[in-house]
Amino acid sequence: MTSRFYTNKKKFLSIILTSILLGLTLFFIQSTPTRSENSSDLVPTIFVHGFKGGPMSFGKMIDRFQDSNWGSKRMVVYVRANGELSVRGGIPHNMNPMIQVLFENNRASLQSQTLWMQKVMSTLYEKHGIEKANLVGHSMGGLASASFLMNNQQEGFPVIQKLAVIASPFEGIEKQEYFKNNNGPATEDLRPGSEALNYLFQHKEDFDQNVQVLAIAGVVNPNDLEKNYWDGLVHTSSVQSLSKIVPFGSYQEHLVYGKAATHSGLHEHPEVDHMLGEFLWNIKSQP
């Protein structure tokens, strides 16, 4: 009788342990980020900060988009100074997933950022099944995004459908005080007439004609009699010069006026939010 009791007890414990292990296995299977079942239908939007930028550069904007139910932040890709990637999150099938790219070395050259963008996009394509994407870049992040588009001819990258740049200086920054107070390889590339900027214009034929482009610029001095408009750092004409690179019919621009339309304030501006919502996801709303 005692032997039968212990035998039944062992069977009972075995059943319980098996059930627990099965439950844990199912939990981890469901919790582990996987490739989307319909990855070809997904079009994540990838946000790239500018010179000296970081998590807050687009962090609040992404939060606002989530609060408005325009999409959800699903992934952060951290690019270390040596080019190694650290990826947090995954891309399950849901509406308008958003991805934030962060550069540890946020003063790096445009060439380095372009190579890092290639690595980021290759990883998203090969390991996360992302076949299509949109790009949003602020300031130098817009330059890096455009440069990536001119250097992604080989296979192994998502197809970029839309590019939005905010206050990106395609003809450089003319404010000399800026270069006295900032340093790093990026500052050489951000000067008017730099080799890195000239490269973009000289190789404009490499820009994908199927990418729809929106350029957003700020005007804090709308009453300037000489119409030398700028956002306090980047002149409007420098942002608008992207039109000389993008194929005809693929480019549109939007100017934001007022004291709040500063270089660092544009990615916190409600008008910019609504312009991006309409451009990226066809969401029509009033700022």
UniProtKB/TrEMBL annotation:
Keyword Transmembrane: yes
Domain of life: Bacteria
UniProt key word Membrane: yes
SUPFAM superfamilies reported in the protein's UniProt record: alpha/beta-Hydrolases (SSF53474)
InterPro entries for this protein: AB_hydrolase_fold, DUF915_hydro-like
Residues annotated as transmembrane: 12-29
Keywords: Membrane, Transmembrane, Transmembrane helix
Annotated protein name in UniProt: Alpha/beta hydrolase
Species annotation: Halobacillus mangrovi
